[in-house]
Design goal:
- By secondary structure, this protein is an alpha/beta fold.
- The protein folds into two domains: 218 residues, Rossmann fold (3-Layer(aba) Sandwich); 65 residues, Alpha-Beta Plaits (2-Layer Sandwich), CATH 3.30.70.
- The strands form three sheets. The protein has a six-stranded mixed β-sheet, with helices on both faces. It has a four-stranded antiparallel β-sheet with strand order 2-1-4-5.
- The radius of gyration is 25 Å and the shape is elongated.
- The structure holds adenosine-5'-triphosphate.
Length: 306
Amino acid sequence: MDTPIIHIEKLSHRYSVQWAVRDISLEIMHHGIYGLLGSNGAGKSTIMNIMCGVLKQTEGDIFIKGINTKTDPVEAKCHIGFLPQQPPLHLDLTVEEYLDYSARLRYIPHKEISKAISEVVERCGISHFKKRLIRNLSGGYQQRVGIAQAIIHNPDFVVLDEPTNGLDPNQIVEIRGLIKEIAQERTVILSTHILPEVQATCEYIYMVEKGKMVFSGTVDEFDNYILPTTIRVSLLANPSVEELKTIPGLLSAEHLGETDYRLQFADARNMVDEIIETCGVNNWRLSQVYLEKNSLDVVFAELSKK
Ligand SMILES: Nc1ncnc2c1ncn2[C@@H]1O[C@H](COP(=O)(O)OP(=O)(O)OP(=O)(O)O)[C@@H](O)[C@H]1O
């Protein structure tokens, strides 16, 4: 069997007396973007800091490509790239000087540093700013430099803590594009509490609340976490709500105005066929029918209560 890129086993962490992370386990086998979701104070940064070896866990183990971060931290860190919530930039260095410094920290052999810098600035779209002081770059470009330092040693596993925080909408789109590119050949875990970000970038979601894992699944599974119970229909024949009660399984119906109705079921997922059939038999002239899904905000709020 292949070795997972990251394997977390029963991770717990306590700051003095208070547990911030409790019994988290997960395993990632493939490249792509994985979202770590959770409200403020849920434990995301703590988990990420432990994954990257910035913080030593109270209990549990983390293996990066089979290497235990606790017993072989230096070897494990060769495979990890990290962009913390506060990018560790040196504002008075140029982009090139800073990346040279980052490369040395990553033990890239001296002869290979210049090539590594050229490749990473190209990849992150900052070649034209190589000689510029970091303090004179916009927030979006500073974030690109932060991502560049995280991947300069070509790690398989990259952790990005709220990578689009504080950026304007255009910069957010650009940084998301860059993250998608780098995730083609790596596993990227990013933390956020911005739900559209998860929808726009992630393939898989882990959600933590009060330090515990409350959800693990695909974005579609997250989307469908709360059972849809309502279906919207447009009926050109304008039947009365009373007449609609012949639809099998219907709990209640509401007339929303003009030709629009909301139909309520215990579980609305498989009711569309029944509705189409009943509308046909009664000649209600169905012109539109769709399942009303819960928004990601509603799912997030529901999971936050767990
Ligand atoms: N150094 C620390 N000492 C004591 N408690 C801490 C420390 N760092 C974090 N905590 C506590 O641990 C819990 C988890 O915090 P953490 O920063 O990991 O959450 P988070 O999900 O990253 O939040 P945010 O989205 O606000 O960054 C919180 O209750 C926080 O107050």
